[in-house]
Amino acid sequence: MGKFKLVKKVDLGKFWEGAYIEFNAPTFKDLKELTAVDADNQTDSIDNAMTVLGNLFVGGKIGEDEVKKENIADLPVEVLTELFKEMSGTPDPNA
Q1: CA-CA distance, 31 to 76, in Å (whole number)?
Q2: pLDDT tens-digit profile of 47-75?
Q3: Residue 42: its pLDDT value, please?
Q4: Domain residue spans in the chain?
Q5: Contact indicator for 10, 21 with CB cutoff of 8 Å
Q6: Are 29 and 87 in contact (CB under 8 A)?
Q7: Alpha-carbon torsion 39, 49, 74, 11, what sign?
Q8: Which one of 20, 79, 92, 95 counts the least CB within 10 Å of its CB?
Q9: Are residues 75 and 5 in contact, defined by beta-carbon separation less than 8 angstroms?
Q10: Is the pLDDT score of 21 beyond 70?
Q11: Dihedral (Cα; 52, 72, 83, 58), 10-degree rounding
């Protein structure tokens, strides 16, 4: 992670009321790692993306539960997809 940190808060209210995840906004280097896809080994690509997400993770809350770095892989894929979209700056087509 670069020396300039910018914390980004992702609202997960469409999944759980009041839920959110905070992470450090990715650098260009992080984005390259996050979006790198190895067609021959997609499992490694997914693991790499989860590692980047974990390294950028700051905190979060779902209901009364505190979300911790070690819980990220337990989130539903739909939520992880939303986080990756937010991190990579992918615009919401419905916005």
Answers
A1: 22
A2: 888 888 889 999 999 999 999 999 999 99
A3: 66
A4: 7-87
A5: yes
A6: no
A7: negative
A8: 95
A9: no
A10: yes
A11: -70
